[in-house]
Amino acid sequence: MAALLLTAGQLCAQQNDQKETSFTPHLEHRILAGFNFGATAPVGLPNTIRKINSYWPEFSPSLGYELGYRITPKWGAAIGVKLDYKGMGTKDEVMYFPTIINTKDGGTFSGTFTGKNKTTVRNAYVAFPLSATFTPNSKWRFSLGGYAAWLFSSNFYGHVSDGYIRSGGPTGEKVIIDHATFDFGTDVRKFDVGLQGGALRKVGRKLEVMGNLNWGLRPVFPDEFKGLDFPLYNIYLTLGVAYKI
Amino acid sequence: MRLRKLCYLAGLIGSLQACIKDAPMNPEADIEKVTFDKSLMTGDVFIDQANGLIMLYLTPEAYEKGIAPQLTLSSGASVMPASGDSIRFNSTEVHQYVVTSADGHNKKTYKVVGVNIGTWKWDFEKWIQNEDYGYQHPIGDEDSATVWSSGNPGIAFSGVGEDPQAYPLRTTTDAYHGKYAAEMVTREGTVLSGWVGIKLFAGSLFLGVFDIEKAFAHPLEATQFGQPYRGEAVRFTGYYKYQPGPKYQNKAGDIVPGMIDSCSVYAVLYTGTTRLDATNIHTSDRIVATAALPEGSAKANWTRFDLPFVMKRKVNYDEKLMMAIVASSSQYGDKYEGAIGSRLVLDSLEIVH
């Protein structure tokens, strides 16, 4: 039994040796194109969110270039630059939802909201992913790493309806809100950083299909923003294609 | 294969719904409604939620015998003393209710206040300031009764800052008689008020109450005009000054060239105990008499008005009546139209019996 394992191991080693001899470290260039699906969302819903009535992905293209370096036949590294739109929309119902809103003219509202909410998010980033890559065979390549992203355009707006606010909190006076719009676009943080990882699968001579999960680790709103009392993170899956050049 | 993917997707959506946690316990502790025998009321009960006051307008009989109010509370909340317990007014004892929310975390205290107008004459010498928001409103010179209201409580919700001068109704030393007068200045909306489509706040002052709950959704119903009144009314007199602001704007906030703002000052006597509001103060068939300033153009100096009540019919002495006095620095302020900066100053008002 032991002998068998030993032989198998030797065979493997031999195979590796053979490949390694024919392998030279090299660069790989890829154009990446796809769409982002996901959410700018809390990790774990707070109990003030009572119902998610609908969700839809916004038109969120992702376009970029990746430079990979294969050090060994299996291992390598990749760095990229991407134009990343991250967007979604949701309709939900909330109850006693705490909010503090500060406006540019010095206005402030602090209290709770109970009612319906519709939010649309569409933020555009220039992102720089950096990954370690693992290529177990000629079909697949896996990658894992992080990203840093700078915001260059932001939208975070919506409206609340069919509900009421209470100034100061649950015992404050009630004011019915039929319809009110909000826009927190300018409050979105300019910098995002997170983890990302995914897979490429070869489907043609130069073409691969791609799936890549990007998980933001920095809340999209700064700590001083109290419009929502819980942090939101960019959690998006990029589905698309890669083209080797 | 496709079917399996669909199953995964369904599973994913299902698990998202599973993320919804149990509903929070109700943290609210409101007295939403106070009801008792209507024949004991001269005016409908008003609950001032912002200041925790239950304002009662009672007949002499009610003061003698007491009342037994039924309370409607936030769901699950409890109250001490209990709903239905009698309140008697034969001592100086302060009556109050303490409501505890269903979740047990919040308590809200409501004080019971009987409101009576002693004299139908106001020089606007006494003002009080809201502790939380900083806006002012006048109280009775002699009886300190809270009978005047304005749009200020609604504007407080729009985040204008705690300076009394930030609110359209405030006190001024530019008085005709005594030290103070009531000043109304139409001001621009705020970013927050823009979120509900309000671009302008007209200055207003009226006998009545402001129902904050309706301030944004049904603003015309939020201004509830009138206080209990007895007998006939002969004349409505007072002094005013008016200066329209330079640029008239419509509801959308666009300047309307050539339009000049005007003020409005009027008094309406009507039957019943339920207040009229800005939707029906001119049209209700309950109206028995009106006295209105015929035109609201600029008046640089103090100008006296003496307006006879135009009676639609005779009133019976035992009839339950309400009297509204309404003034605004922008006549169409209720439609959020007017000129920013329009200034109306009122002093020495009187309803002559």
UniProtKB/TrEMBL annotation, chain A:
Residues 28-221 form the Outer membrane protein beta-barrel domain. It comes from the Bacteria. InterPro entries: Beta-barrel_OMP_2. This is Outer membrane protein beta-barrel domain-containing protein.
UniProtKB/TrEMBL annotation, chain B:
Residues 123-352 form the Putative carbohydrate metabolism domain. This is Putative carbohydrate metabolism domain-containing protein. InterPro entries: PCMD (IPR025112), Put_CMD_sf (IPR038653). It comes from Chitinophaga eiseniae. The lineage of its organism: Bacteria, Pseudomonadati, Bacteroidota, Chitinophagia, Chitinophagales.
